């Protein structure tokens, strides 16, 4: 009798164990009672500040390049529709709407030239390193009618390249249906466009735009701005090409040292939605709300965002989809800014917290 009773108890314990395991791994029922009774924990999108630091949203975009200009000590966030200039104190001091119209009056975008402080319009170029940027109109257009022979064109190109402080190679904004590419040269404050010869083309490689003349590849020429890096995730701030989606091995930043000024940890996760494998009822992923703790030196913030966690046989830990970016160590000082990027990977459980944030000292 005693053995039978012990077996029943053991059976009940095993049954209860698998029942609880099923609840935890396969349903949205939360057994961590009391975790989310902290109703005063704010969303990331709300203004966050303490005695030492502030976190402010810069933009809602989910695709954005963040770069730093060490010569002039400012930052740029560049996205499809706008570029924002942020000073060393973390204040947005200039915003450029990239929407414009083409010469045939069709809606178009100005082109931000990656890793630079230049924005190219149909009629001129903005130099965002200036205190008050304005449209610097083109002074001279060469080979617009494609009339130069190749020998004359190469001589013209070599002369302009050697004598210009800035050389940018364009992809679009050609007045002849895109058959040739515009090349931009800045010499003594004036801009010249030289349209490419029909047998010479522009391509991009190793972080620079190049053209090929004979067997030679010639790079563009400008003071390159530097990408920020999330050291822990090994991700750069180049339109958030993260999680090894692209080969960044040729970036100049790979040869630079970065020091992460901030860190983040997950305090708790609340299951809210369950994703199943296609055409099955097998649970694979939970979506829900996570409480994060962001540590900045001797200070910290606690806030909520959305996150995912493995379900069923998927043992994936909580993923908060937050990236923390810093400039190269050699440019850092005690007032250096950090940037935070949050983007939920799908529309399944996304929220208004997504976007780019600046983490800065609270001087008020």
Uncertain parts: none
How would the global form be characterised?
elongated
Q: Kindly, what is the distance between the CA atoms of the first and last residues, rounded to a whole number of angstroms?
A: 76 Å
H/E series? HEEEEEEEEEEEEHEEEEEEEEEEEEEEE
Short structural summary:
This protein is mostly beta strands. The chain contains two helices and 27 strands.
Describe, in plain words, how this protein is organized in 3D.
This protein is mainly beta. Among the domains are: 1-29; 62-226, no CATH class. Helix content is 11%, strand content 40%. Strands 9-10-11-12-15-14-13 form a seven-stranded mixed beta sheet, covered by helices on one side. Strands 1-2-27-26-25 form a five-stranded antiparallel beta sheet, with no helix packed on it. Strands 6-5-4-3-19 form a five-stranded antiparallel beta sheet, with no helix packed on it. A hairpin with a 2-residue loop joins strand 14 and strand 15 (190-195).
